[in-house]
Design goal:
Blueprint lengths: L11 E3 L14 H13 L4 H15 L10 H27 L9 E4 L3 E4 L2 E4 L5 E3 L4 E4 L3 H9 L5 H20 L1 H9 L4 H25 L8 H11 L2 H9 L12 H14 L7 H5 L1
Parallel strand pairs: 1-2, 2-6
Antiparallel strand pairs: 3-4, 5-6
Helix pairs in contact: 3-5, 5-7, 5-8, 6-7, 7-10, 8-10
Membrane topology: Single-pass membrane protein
Organism: Flavobacterium cheniae
Protein name: Metalloprotease
Length: about 280
Amino acid sequence: MKWKGRRQSDNVEDRRGMSGGGKVIAGGGAIAIVFFLVKMFFPEAAPFVDTIQQSQGAQQTEQVEPRELTPEEKEMGEFVSTVFADTEDIWTKIFEENNLGTYEQPKMVLFTGSVETACGGASSASGPFYCPGDKKVYMDLAFFEELRTRFGAKGGDFAIAYVVAHEVGHHVQTILGTSGKVRQLQQSKSEAEANKLSVCLELQADFYGGLWAHYNQKYLEEGDIEEALSAAHAVGDDAIQSKMQGHVVPDSFTHGSSEQRMKWFMKGFKSGDIRLGDTFAEEL
């Protein structure tokens, strides 16, 4: 992606390298990603996993001293800030073109290890996520190395851009009221039915990521879309379940299969039409 020398967002707060005095989980990113995936695909185990993390945190707590970010870390921060700026410009345009009102820009927090949010405390184990309580995207950028080395994504800068755009897609769902309607509807559904609604919500965020890429084509380079598709494939429920447990349980899907995630990203990218992103009508 062509990004150097371009505008960076004023809505990014970089907390990496700051003194957190926080909890450091034994095993670092490898165990963190396992915790994240267990909670994603086995939500009933989340309280148990949280207890383990809290226990480890209590045993492994140490004071983290402020440190200077490496040149590579600084460049990564500049890149995601540029991508975030692109989402601001493009979603403002999409809202104007479709008479959706004024686009309310979210914020992004870059952190290392752990972070406090309006949705509660979180660690790297949470993976990149959006908190509707404070309308912020939270990212520990170490996640992407784990995604590449452990789960087979190609890597590359546009794999990161895809995830940023996906999380911003959840912000769009929040301000349009989609997320609130889905959460309310899930309360009256069985677990399997609620999971299907979660899948549709995630696939729509993938569609929105593809829609952003459609509007951002002048900055794309050869191979960028392939990098995004590789990341979408790697985070498909079936791909991760196969790696984690050796078999696939479709009723437990909460984010969609690899095929679905790639399909909806590409639909957004090829169509450029927000009106075609009704995943609920097509997937339920």
